[in-house]
Automatic annotation (TrEMBL):
Pfam families: Impact_N
TM region(s), chain numbering: none
GO terms classed as biological process: regulation of translational initiation
Signal peptide from the UniProt entry: none
InterPro entries for the chain: Impact, Impact_N, Impact_N_sf, Ribosomal_Su5_D2-typ_SF
Protein name in UniProt: YigZ family protein
Stated family: Belongs to the IMPACT family.
Organism: Psychroflexus maritimus
GO cellular component: cytoplasm
Domain Impact N-terminal: 21-126
Gene3D superfamilies: Impact, N-terminal domain
Length: 203
């Protein structure tokens, strides 16, 4: 995968079920962008599965995959959260929460058995999700008089840019998005076009 792209979910995945020696592992994957959304998803699952013993999960946030956490929720250390996190890495997804809800079936699985079960549960949850690749875009502003509007529109079309916002009241004011790797070249092209005021925008 290219450096200016990332994978994420389009919507929550389907509920999955994995059984091992009487224990049930319900798997879930959610698209999330912050810890408030993560906590909301966990609370929803806890109210749905109020008799379950363990809610083990891992999440990864940020287009650069910079933030993550794994939680064993009472299972032996590193037997649940890290195997789930390993699947987030295997599927290369971010802005994603994967939860495996365990109902204990009476037979202990041992650490090796737990690692295998939680890994499988997370894998099934992600396989039941629709994963898409998105590009990391950079925004910049272009201002011009009305007589230059067609020039801007032609550049937008030729360079396959997207218009994030536009204001055409007094003059023409566009907020444009370009894929990160193409930004230096595209920005320069607008700068070198006579009659356009161009400036970078902070995200």
């Amino acid at each position: 995968m290219e450096k200016d792209a990332y994978k994420t979910l389009t919507k929550p995945g389907k509920e999955t079920l994995f059984k091992e020696k009487g224990s049930k592992f319900f798997g879930y994957a959610f698209p999330v962008t912050n810890e408030d959304e993560i906590n909301f998803c966990l609370e929803e699952l806890k109210s749905k599965h109020h008799k379950a013993r363990h809610f083990c999960y891992a999440w990864q946030l940020g287009k650069d995959y910079a933030h993550f956490r794994a939680n064993d929720d009472g299972e032996p250390s590193n037997s649940a959260g890290m195997p789930i996190y390993g699947q987030l890495q295997a599927f290369q997804v971010t802005n994603c929460l994967v939860v495996s809800v365990r109902y204990f079936g009476g037979t202990k699985l041992g650490v090796g058995g737990l690692i295998s079960a939680y890994k499988t549960s997370a894998q099934l949850a992600l396989e039941a999700s629709s994963i898409i690749q998105k590009t990391i875009d950079v925004n910049f502003q272009v201002k011009c008089n009305y007589d230059m509007m067609n020039v801007v529109m032609r550049l937008v079309k030729d360079l396959a840019l997207s218009i994030e916002a536009q204001n055409l009241e007094m003059d023409c004011d566009f907020k444009l998005a370009v894929r990160k790797k193409d930004y230096p070249k595209v920005f320069k092209q607008f700068q070198n076009t006579y009659g356009l005021q161009v400036k970078p925008l902070e995200d």
